[in-house]
Specification:
- This protein has about 170 residues and is an alpha/beta fold.
- The longest helix has 19 residues.
- The radius of gyration is 15 Å and the shape is globular.
- The two termini are about 25 Å apart.
- It is built from eight helices and five strands; from the N terminus they run βαβαααβαβααβα.
- It has one domain: Rossmann fold (3-Layer(aba) Sandwich).
- α1 crosses α8.
- The protein has a five-stranded parallel β-sheet, sandwiched between helices.
- The structure holds adenosine-5'-diphosphate, shikimate-3-phosphate and magnesium ion (MG).
- The site of shikimate-3-phosphate has 11 residues, from α1.
- Its cofactor is Mg(2+).
Length: about 170
């Protein structure tokens, strides 16, 4: 088993929201590695960062992503920072990866003051600007398709991705 598609992109790109809609359109399951991590850790992501630190979160993320890439049959959304890990990027070479791109203005509008994303809890605008610049080449490196989400409704974006995954009629 392997995912039908893997969604990557920065926080606020809409991986969770659009992933669910794409899975519904295709009649497949949806999973988000952040939710799996929370279930496994028994606590929300901000608490993992506070109690155990970011390196512990990244280690758990690496394990959960690798397992999901091997076993999950459906649309899989990754957390925005999963692609920072070189091993994860190597695994993604074998998969259909869709990069949901977003520019700073829309990303910040969507995540506000972090909304459960500990990396953005302080100084969200400067942090998001840094994350976008640091990660853009990594998202591009792993992706077979890039879909822009700026100034677009989730339903429209999901329909485009579902059509792309179905392939030519
Ligand atoms: N295309 C979009 N336009 C407007 N708001 C969006 C769009 N995509 C997602 N959102 C909103 O932005 C927030 C973050 O979306 P989410 O799916 O959690 O992103 P990610 O998982 O990539 O961090 C949510 O409140 C969601 O409803
Ligand atoms: O960008 C990141 O490093 C992170 C993004 C979050 O997921 P979303 O991209 O779904 O917000 C979550 O995995 C964690 O807070 C770290
Ligand atoms: Mg998400």
């Amino acid at each position: 088993m392997r995912p039908v598609a893997v969604l990557v992109g920065p926080p606020g790109a809409g991986k969770t929201t659009i992933g669910e809609a794409v899975a519904a359109a295709l009649g497949t399951a949806f999973a988000d590695t952040d939710s799996i991590i929370e279930t496994r850790a028994g606590k929300p992501i901000p608490e993992i960062f506070i109690d155990d630190g970011e390196p512990a979160f990244r280690a758990l993320e690496r394990t959960v992503v690798a397992e999901s890439l091997e076993t999950f049959d459906g649309v899989l959304a990754l957390g925005g920072g999963a692609i920072l890990d070189e091993g994860t990027r190597k695994l993604l070479v074998e998969h259909t990866v869709v990069f949901l791109s977003v520019e700073l203005a829309d990303a910040i509008k969507r995540v506000g003051l972090g909304a459960g994303r500990p990396l953005l809890a302080m100084n969200p605008r400067a942090t998001m600007k840094f994350l976008l610049e640091q990660r853009r080449p990594l998202y591009t490196e792993v992706a077979a398709h890039t879909v822009s989400t700026d100034d677009r409704e989730p339903e429209e974006i999901a329909a485009e991705i579902a059509a792309l995954l179905r392939g030519p009629a």
